[in-house]
Amino acid sequence: MHRFFLNQEQINEGLVVFPDAISKQIRKVLRMDVRKDPVVVLDNSGWEYLVQLDGLKGNLVLGHVVSKQQGRPQPALEITLCFSQSKREKVEFVLQKCTEIGVARFLPFVSSRTLVQDRQGGNNSARRDRYEAIIREAAEQSRRSRLPELLSPLAFEDMLKETKEAGLRLIAWEGTPLVRHLCSDTLKGLRDLEKKTVALLIGPEGGFSAEEVALAESYGYQQFSLGINILRMETACMAASVILTNMALDLKD
Known about the structure:
By secondary structure, the chain is of the alpha/beta class. The chain folds into two domains: about 5-70, CATH 2.40.240.20; about 80-250, SPOUT methyltransferase, trefoil knot domain (Alpha/beta knot, 3-Layer(aba) Sandwich), CATH 3.40.1280. It has helices at about 20-30, 90-100, 125-140, 155-160, 210-220, 235-245; strands at about 5, 10, 15, 40, 45-55, 60-70, 80-85, 105-110, 150, 155, 170, 195-200, 220-225. Strands 7, 8, 9, 10, 11, 12 and 13 form a seven-stranded parallel beta sheet that branches. Strands 1-4-5-6-3-2 form a six-stranded mixed beta sheet. Strand 5 and strand 6 (about 60-70) form a beta hairpin. Helix 2 runs parallel beside helix 3 and helix 2 (about 90-100) runs parallel beside helix 6.
């Protein structure tokens, strides 16, 4: 069954009005029967609604709520993925795949070796709309009940300041000894915390400088290794997010 995230004001007293873009998708892309097909609507607060389509008002699809229930629970670990600004296609890949994995928040940054030094690129209206659409579609496809948050790009040290309250701060670096890999002990400090938050820091294609790693450590970041091979930025984002998400399953025990 198709799933759609809507704003809460679009679900009012059991009546649902689908916005223009989603109405067009329902009618022209999915070619659904707008007078009887069922869909699932999510309000980004954790609730999901079974909705039956009722017809059209102009070009907008209408529906009514049949039932309401809690959506899938959030991952045990709340990951803020901090990744270096890069080419558009790489950023889109990271947003899509790491949304599917379960990342809670995306925070791009610019460091000394970042390929795309323009911090305003992530604030471009059209580009941000595209990024948010990619996140929304990936969340719908992976059956998440809440959308990850996309933050505006920051300078490297500003990003470190922004994440200083995370319960655990991790930085991947190719210069880290292989023995300092992600393992069950990595998350042990989070077990007794009510809110289990991790800031995961992945560098640019050229890596971090030693000075940047030292600066991150001064903000409480711990180095870790992703193995013997050097990974692309987007691959490292996925690999580390998957490893942490799966290790966090033990935090529920």
